[in-house]
Amino acid sequence: MSKTPLLAGAAALALIPLSAAAQDHSEHDLHASHVAPAAEPKAADPVDHGTMDHGTMDHGTMAHGAIDHGSTTIPAEGSGTARLPANEGGHTGLHIDAGDDWMVMIHGFAWGVYTDQSGPRGDNKAYIQSMLMLAGEKQTEWGRIQLKTMMSLEPLMSNFGYPNLFATGETAGGEPLIDRQHPHDLFMELAARIDVNVGDDARLFVYGGPVGEPAIGPSAFMHRGSARYNPEAPITHHWFDSTHITYGVATLGYATRAIQLEGSLFTGREPDEKRWNIEGPRFDSWSLRGTWTPSPVWALQVSHARLKEPEAQHPGENEHRTTASVSYANGRGLSATAAYSAKNRDPGATLSAWLAEVNWDLDDHHTLFGRVENVKNDELFSDHDDPLHDVPFRVTKFQAGYAYRLPITGPLNLALGGSIAAFDKPRALDVAYGKNPIGATVFARLSIGH
In angstroms, rounded to a whole number, what is the distance separating the alpha carbons of residues 239 and 169? Predict the structure, then answer.
């Protein structure tokens, strides 16, 4: 743990000179900016990305997420190829003109957290969450090219991760992780995307690489505006987001401003306990997703996937996963997401979950956030001799929190806050968890961009 804050702090400090040398590009949204095809008639395109001079443009005041290429604003991009409402704005951070029409974005955070989870299964821990995203993008006459890299130093916190009551998924020391959230791998994304214009408002795209995210579910929780300042991973993470780090992904899609249809081939097995390496691809699973963005306010998706033996603690069991979600962003600081997922083990039962979360920036400094999630989980007891082993229990988690946001310099921001969580569970779990377990968390979040 002692090395983690030093490394995370060094990474942040190393970027400060860049922010001083470059223009303030903190409001320039790389991901939302170049989704529209470059082949549109110039009369409908107020910015000619093919010929614009990035070196002289004022990116500090340029809000690409709100550029109107015709009659409809451009959907923002979340994790992988997932879409968010245009009002979400996508990732912000430090943007650098790299020449030859390439724009480089740096976005990330180092999130110091202390959590105390009560009850017989509770625990407390101080830890660091971290993510650094480097992305390059180039517009061409025929479309665009994106190169994406995302990394984390969370493997430093050990495979046992951090306490998170009723969370399950993956293993540590060969045993299932229960009531804990596993750390992310060093490599969270190493992928590329190429979009080719096929009409005034249409394009084909391919996305993939050794580490990426297939077309399944809503955008991963750490990329949703509705979860921006929430310090805890959802206990429904393995119903919605478990594929956001996948070793081997290939996606083909068709997109307009209003719709996106895509399909993926990918590796179904979740990452193993070796958090520092890149695992070999298998391409043994598939998914299909459709997303509708009828206005800048909304993004709705439905998806279905067949995963080959995704979980190490369930050998021989495949999974059929179906999800649906609605994301909302009013463009004035309020973002919300509602989602449903059903995973059908084959062979095995169907386990469902739902989630609703919100992030509300009251003004320039004060943010309220919250999450309610409900899950039917049969992994809470790993001992095969326990009479509750493989018994599904439906649990609801209620979480509410506050963050005070403080700009530092350029794209660097600091947020201080905390959250409190309570649970509704069957009485059969009282012996293991106590009657009224509580989770309390405080945090300091240093970020490059929002």
Answer: 10
CA distance 65 to 200: 19
Q: Apex CA 310: angle with CA 349 and CA 299, to 5°?
A: 85
Q: What is the DSSP string of 227-292?
A: GTT--S--TTHHHHTTTSSBSSEEEEEEE-SSEEEEEEEE--SPP-S-TTS-PPP---EEEEEEEE
Domain 3-448: give its CATH architecture.
Answer: Beta Barrel (2.40)
CA distance 181 to 159: 9
How many angstroms separate the CA atoms of 217 and 224, rounded? Answer: 12
Q: Quick: pLDDT tens for 290-347.
A: 999 999 999 999 999 999 999 888 889 999 999 999 999 999 999 999 999 999 999 9
pLDDT in tens, 230-250: 999 999 999 999 999 999 999
Q: Which residue has the tokens 């303030």?
A: 24
Q: How far is CA 257 from the centre of its chain?
A: 22
Collect the ranges in the chain with pLDDT lower than 70: 1-72
Q: What is the pLDDT of residue 420?
A: 98
- Residues 11 and 152: their CA atoms lie apart, in Å, by 11
Strand partners, 422: 398, 438
